[in-house]
Specification:
Elements: E1 5-7, E2 10-14, H1 16-24, H2 29-37, E3 41-44, E4 50-56, E5 62-69, E6 76-82
Parallel strand pairs: 2-6
Antiparallel strand pairs: 1-2, 3-4, 4-5, 5-6
Length: 91
């Protein structure tokens, strides 16, 4: 059984850390899907990761950051969190 999840045209897998924080922080997979398929901002970090950011209406407009390693196939979601630093910077 694969850990892969399809988000539109994008098939991704999740690290154990990502799965753990999603459960601990009660993040909804629909929010993650929306953020990755229709991000309001995409940042390419110096470490090679790509960061997808979008406001989550269900979380009072807080910004969800989905950090992905795009250098592997399929891409690997490394971590996910509500980014307080970006609250006034996105959308």
């Amino acid at each position: 059984m694969s850990d892969g999840v399809s988000y539109g045209h994008m098939e991704v897998e999740f690290t154990q850390h990502a799965r753990d924080v999603i459960a601990e922080r009660r993040l909804d997979f629909d929010w993650i899907r929306r953020t990755m398929t229709t991000p309001q901002l995409v940042e390419d970090a110096a470490d090679g990761t790509r960061h997808f950011l979008a406001r989550v209406p269900e979380q009072e407009g807080r910004v969800l950051r989905v950090v992905v390693n795009p250098q592997v196939d399929p891409p690997l979601v490394v971590t996910v969190f509500l980014d307080r630093r970006m609250r006034g910077c996105v959308g």
